[in-house]
Predict the 3D structure of the following.
Amino acid sequence: MEVSLSSTSCIPLSSKLKHKHGLFHSQIPIHTASTKTRRTKPLSVVNASRQTLSSNWLVSPHDFSASTASPWLPRFEELDATNMLLRQRIIFLGSQVDDMTADFIISQLLFLDAEDSKKDIKLFINSPGGSVTAGMGIYDAMKLCKADVSTVCLGLAASMGAFILASGTKGKRYCMPNSRVMIHQPLGTAGGKATEMSIRIREMAYHKIKINKILSRITGKPEEQIELDTDRDNFMNPWEAKEYGLVDGVIDDGKPGLVAPIGDSSHTKT
C-alpha cells in the first residue's frame, strides 16, 4: 500500500480503523481537511507490478526446476518468444538491418558465446537487407564468437541479409526450400556540395570492394566474377544459392509439408 507523507497531512491509522477495514483491504479512503479524497492502489496491483518486474529479462534455466518460484522471477508463460528462443540458442533477424537491430543481434551473439562457446548459435534470417555498416557489425560479431554460428534463411535474405547468411560457419549455412536469396552492390545516394558527394562516393566504393573481397573468400569465386554478378539485383533459389557457395544445404526432404532437421545431410537436396 502506498502512503503519501507530507508535513501538512500525516494521519496515523487508529487500531479501530485497522480493525474495520483490515490491513489488506483493497482500498482505504483517507480524508484530510487540506486535501481531496485520495484512493490508494490496491495491494494486488502493487504486488502484480513487483512480480512482473523482470518479465523481460532472461533467467537461468535452473529456475524452472525449482519447486517454488522466486518472488522476482516471471512465470513460465510470462516469458516472451524472443527469450524462449534465446534459451534454445536461437537468434532471429526478421527486419531491416539498421543500427538498433544490429545492436540487438550483436548483444545476443556475444551473450550466447560467453554462456557456452562450445554449443552452436543458430541465426535465422528473413531480412531485405539495410545498412552496410550495421551489417558489418553483425559480421564482425559472428567472427568474434568462438561458437559456430549456423545461419538459416527463411523467406528472404537480400543484400546485407544475404551477406550475413553467407557469413555463417562453413558447413552450417542453410536455406528453407521456399526462400529466396538476393545479392547486389551497395546502394546509396549523394547530394549537397561536390566535395561532400565525392566523399560519399568514395565511401560507397570502399564498401563495395570490401564486400566483394569477403564474398570472394566465402564462395571461392574471383572478385571480378562477384563484381559482375552483383552489378544488378541477382535473385537465386535455395539450390542456386548453394551452387553459388552462399549456403551449404537446403532443408528439404522432398516430401510436401515436411522439412528435415537442421544439419541432417541425408535430407539435403543435391
The first helix runs from residue 15 to 21.
